[in-house]
Amino acid sequence: MLIIVLAFLFLSILFYVMFGGADFGVGILEFFSKSKNKEITKTTSYGIIGPIWEANHIWLIICIVILWIGFPQYYNLIVTQLHFPITLILVGIIGRGTAFVFRHYDAFTDNSQILYDRIFQISSVFAPFFIGLTAGAVLSGEMIHPDKISSSDFATLYIYSWLNPFAILSGFFIVSIFALISALFLVGETKIDIQTYFIRKAKRANILAVLFGVLLFIEAYLNGRQFIYLFLDNQLTLIVFFTVTALLFPLWKTLTGPSKIIPRLILGIQLFLMVFIYAALAFPNLILFKNGELSILENTPPDTVFVSLGFSLLIASVFVLPGLYHLYKTFGLIEKE
Amino acid sequence: MDTLIAARMQMATSMIFHIVFAAIGMVMPFLMITAHYKWIKSGKEHFLTLTKAWQKGVAIFFVVGAVSGTMLSFELGLLWPEFMKHAGPIIGMPFSLEGTAFFVEAIAFGFYVYGWQKIKNKWFHWTTGLIVGISGLASGILVVAANGWMNSPSGFTYKDGVFSNIDPIGALLNDAWFSQALHMSLAAFVAVGFAVGGLHLWQYHRKKNPILHLNAFKIALLYGSIAAILIPISGDIAAKDIAVRQPVKLAAMEAHYETEKGADLIIGGIVDEKAQSVDYAIHLPNALSFLAFGDFNAEVKGLNEFPKDEHPPVALTHYSFQVMVGIGTLLMLLGAIYFLSMKRSNLIGKKWFIWAFVLATPLGFIALEAGWMVTELGRQPWIIQGIMKTKDAVTPIQGMQYSFYLYLLIYLGLSFTVFWLMNRQVRKLNTP
Ligand code: HDD
Ligand code: HEM
Ligand code: HEM
After folding, report:
1. Do the chains contact at B428 and A107, CB–CB below 8 Å?
2. pLDDT computed for residue A154 by the predictor
3. Residue B283 lies in a domain
């Protein structure tokens, strides 16, 4: 059952990146659009994301719930040491979620729309940035091992654990990845004349993502982070790394092609491999600490907890996945109508 | 303000805010599909207009509820890391099921809202709305079961600070889950039924689109009145539970200091926590013993039976309880009057009738918040009754007051905006 629970944790992280990412991404694109194009992005994205955007965010809740039930010590370390960036994620999520409904469900369309749009756009960049930063902090090797907490001062524990170049670059990396996901998504959903516009966006986001990815590696290398050694010492990860890079070529090629599924599939595979690389690399020490190691499998609750959690998740999938599939299908996100 | 106070205040603010949206999210879908049903059956245009207007309301509240709920699921860990570390594995199960219920709800809602054009079969479309309602209700019941566990912990063995023999199902089915979940579900129907009904009756009175508003009032009050008549019964069940499981809480609710046989029920009054007395209160002889144990001469434990540092804030708990029960009694009467008006329809035109229901608009929600105050304050100083104190669960981060101010600001801003938006929805309904 432990395996099943870990698989669900992995999948919900992946799905949150994919679907939540597409969702955040429309706001990021809007933020970076020239004002005359903002309207296009807004209306296209609403038509597509509207029906499903609520569902996209529940993956985050599933991650949290799995962590707190199955891996309470990990959860505890993350929510205490990364308290500040997580609070900022929440501020972003609130701003975005509410501004989204307000602008689409307000009874009248008037000047308040300008305010909703601003809040939506800004928090759409803000939240993913701190999501990336938090994820980066977990990998940066600056978090403090539980044994050392009592001998650490406030700043080391609660500030420098996340305020470092690696984490900040991860923030930018995630923002560009999310923008890429969503641009790619919108390309397939729009009519020819707007398509070229989103293709351009997708390419730019892709270039930025690669750029920040490279910077991340350079930073990690220069600062001798554990992350980079894990990476370089492992053949599997190198193979995966080259596959992800190589897949960029067909991605760009098919972007302009007739199929809307193939580029999404390629990007999906890339994202899968990226999350997978990290899991495979670091497992079972999924948090990289400054001083010491702690496996995610240490201090876990007894098997009964995993059995009931595993079963709940399996039963939940039986209800949720078909519903989700039909939702995507009904709104034409899986096949062309 | 120290970290503990700030964290408690932040938790309270978040919950007080979330519960409003949660209650609406649980109940509005039922009102909406009732209007929808009537539209399908009668084909009358105003039912369709009403359904769509309510659907917009549901959408706004759904999202604000979901966003504030997402914050809450983080806040549990951000504010009470020690609590979550131990409680997570034990009581996480209802939360994971709740996650499922939300998922189903969100999917069904996606189908419902966008299904007006895309779904051909009108009953299938209607059913997606029903699923929204059922899964919303289920999620409410599940979280309340988690809260029940904090009141009546079960499903583990606790020895020397170690939790072992964890049984998540046993924790879910704790002694308090049923009485609390039943009472809470009814409360949501009362609060939302009377609030929505009152608002629509007011619009009816102002002769704005009267047929629509009158029908809206009737639908809302149908749910509200049934629940209002049942809720005192379920409240009594809850009180009898507490008498056994949390005698300190019961004593605080009643501001009852001395243990005695044949205890009086103390209604109202001003609590003097120092002198341990209640002034200006009405005493009903032996009624407390009867209400708590079904026996006029039963012994009811007083606060002095327990160490002082285990007393909850007595005055606040007592006042909150009075407010809830007072409103409960009033709304039960109004519920009965509503049923009378179904037989005698000329009642609805009467001034006093309209004023009674319009003035009752906020009462259900006030009772709902007051009831939660009773439950949550009455549990203090424990976060898990008898096992872990709130002060031992709080985050080690200093300066939590700033976090509290930030959240307070966000919630106030959101409340204001939502209020403003709703106002605009109503104005839109009234401008043909
Ligand atoms: C519309 C709202 C409403 C109304 C009219 C009432 N209640 Fe209530 N009550 C609640 C809303 C509520 C609540 C907010 O939903 C609580 C908080 C926790 C819970 O499970 O329900 C609650 C809790 C609560 C508790 C404490 C449960 C616990 O701590 O476990 C008791 C003893 C009662 N109620 C009793 C009553 C009685 C005797 C009422 C008779 C008129 C009554 N309530 C009306
Ligand atoms: C939505 C209705 C609820 C309201 C209005 C509410 C209200 C409150 C209030 C006022 C407090 C502060 C009490 C104090 O510290 O003096 C509090 C604390 C708390 N509540 Fe709730 N509560 C609700 C439901 C829940 C549920 C369903 C859970 C858990 C599943 C929960 C978990 C907590 C926790 C963990 C604390 C902090 C610890 C404590 O103060 O005991 N609450 N709540
Ligand atoms: C500690 C306590 C609580 C936590 C952690 C919590 C968590 C959440 C979360 C994560 C969501 C959003 C899910 C989504 O994305 O759709 C949510 C929404 C919701 N919550 Fe809570 N919740 C708590 C207390 C309560 C209580 C006490 C109730 C009801 C009695 C409740 C009922 C609901 C409902 C019905 C929704 C759906 C939103 C809607 O339909 O408007 N929650 N909550």
Report:
1. yes
2. 73
3. no
* Rounded Cα gap, residues B400 and B403, in angstroms: 5
- Residue closest via CA to ligand 2's atom 31 equals B147
Q: How far apart are CA B42 and CA A207, in angstroms?
A: 58
| CA-to-CA separations, B36 to A231, B77, B399, in angstroms, rounded | 58, 40, 50
- The three-class DSSP label of residue B348 is helix
Q: Which of A17, A12, A323, A21 has its CA nearest to residue A186?
A: A21
Residue A333 has pLDDT above 60, yes or no: no
Residue A58 Cα to ligand 3 midpoint, Å, equals: 12
Those residues whose C-beta lies under 8 Å from the C-beta of residue A7, and which sit 6 or more positions away, are: none
Q: Which of B96, B122, B2, B375 is nearest to A305 (CA)?
A: B96
Spatial CA neighbour of A62 closest among A104, A14, A111, A94: A14
| Residue B61, domain extent | 3-259+301-430
Could you report the per-residue pLDDT of B137-172, keeping only the tens digit for each?
A: 998 999 998 898 888 887 777 777 777 777 778 778
Structure tokens that stand for B74 in this block: 């983080």
Averaging pLDDT over each range in A250-254, B42-46, B154-158, which range is the top one?
Answer: B42-46
**Where do the structural domains in chain A lie, given as residue ranges?**
2-330
Ligand 1 atom 26, closest CA: B375
Across the interface, which of B107, B167, B397 has its CB nearest the CB of A327?
B107
Q: Is the peptide bond before A128 cis (omega within 30 degrees of 0)?
A: no
Alpha-helix residue ranges (DSSP H) falling in A190-302: 192-222, 226-232, 235-246, 248-255, 261-282
Question: Are β-strands B277-279 and B270-272 bridged in parallel, bridged antiparallel, or unpaired?
Answer: antiparallel
Diameter of chain A by CA atoms?
62
Q: Please judge whether A105 and B102 are an interchain contact, meaning their C-beta atoms are less than 8 angstroms apart.
A: no
For ligand 2, what atom is nearest to the CA of residue B95?
A: 30
Nearest atom of ligand 2 to the alpha carbon of B379: 41
Tell me the mean pLDDT in the region A311-326.
82
List the 150-179 stretch of A: residues with Cβ below 8 A of B: 154, 158
Q: Using the structure block, give the residue that is written with the tokens 């890391």.
A: B81
ipTM value greater than 0.85: no
The answer on pLDDT for A130 being more than 90 is yes
Output the pTM of the full model.
Answer: 0.86
Q: Tally the domains of chain B.
A: 1
The fraction of chain B above a pLDDT of 90, given in percent, is: 19
Is residue B381 within 8 A of residue B391, CB to CB? The reply is yes
Is the CB of residue B65 below 6 angstroms from any atom belonging to ligand 3?
A: yes
Q: Identify whether the C-beta of residue A294 lies closer than 8 Å to the C-beta of residue A286.
A: no
Q: What is the DSSP letter of B360?
A: T
- Indicate if the pLDDT at residue A280 is higher than 80: no
Report the pLDDT value the prediction gives residue B185, as an integer from 0 to 100: 94
Confidence tier at B370 by pLDDT (50, 70, 90): very high
- Check: CB of residue A77 under 8 Å from CB of residue B393: no
The candidate with the shortest Cα–Cα distance to B334, out of B432, B194, B235, B430, is B194
List Cα–Cα distances, A13 to A120, A280, B267, B427, in angstroms: 23, 14, 53, 43
Q: How far is the CA of A174 from the centre of ligand 2 (A)?
A: 34
pLDDT at B195 over 90: yes
Is residue B87 domain-resident?
yes
- CB–CB contact B71 A94 (8 Å): yes
Angle A121-A125-A131 (CA atoms, 0-180°, nearest 5)? 145
B267 touches chain A (CB under 8 A): no
**What pLDDT does B372 receive?**
94
Q: Is residue B291 part of a domain?
A: no
The answer to whether position B13 is within a domain reads yes
- Asked whether the predicted pLDDT for residue A331 surpasses 70, the reply is no
Nearest to B230 by CA among B145, B328, B356: B328
For chain B, give percent helix, strand, coil, nearest 5: 75, 5, 20
Identify the CA nearest to B172 among candidates B144, B202, B140, B213. B144
Taking the Cβ of residue B427 and every Cβ of chain A, the question of whether any pair is shorter than 8 Å is answered with yes
